[in-house]
Amino acid sequence: MGRIIKEDPNFPIQNARRIVGLRNQIIHGYDSVSDENIWGIVINHIPKLKEETALLLK
After folding, report:
1. From CA 34, how far away is CA 26, in angstroms rounded?
2. Among 7, 13, 43, 53, which residue's Cβ finds the most Cβ atoms within 10 Å?
3. Over 2-56, what HEC string results?
4. Rounded Cα distance, 30 and 44, in Å
5. pTM (predicted TM-score)
6. pLDDT in the model for residue 34
7. In the chain, where the domains are located
8. pLDDT value of position 23
């Protein structure tokens, strides 16, 4: 995602920068990421991301 948004800053994934930020937080400071935060992302944001990627693949 980081490479994509560098190439196209207007890439139509709503939370692209936040996805990159979360990845960096997990990779560099895993113990500071709460299970509740990750679960909230899975429940609240993954369905929207799935819809956005499905539209891009059409």
Report:
1. 10
2. 13
3. HHHHHHCCCCCCCCHHHHHHHHHHHHHCHHHCCHHHHHHHHHHCHHHHHHHHHHH
4. 21
5. 0.77
6. 87
7. 2-57
8. 92
Q: Quick check: 8 pLDDT over 90? A: yes
Instruction: State percent of the chain over pLDDT 70.
Output: 98
Which DSSP state fits 57? H
For residues 30 and 24, the answer to whether their CB atoms sit within 8 Å is no
Separation between Cα atoms, residue 5 and residue 23, nearest integer Å:
14
Inter-residue long-range contacts of 7-12, CB under 8 Å, 24+ positions, other chains counted: 12/52, 12/55, 12/56
d(CA 30, CA 55): 32
Say if residue 22's pLDDT is above 80.
Answer: yes
Closest CA to 26 of 13, 14, 42, 37: 37
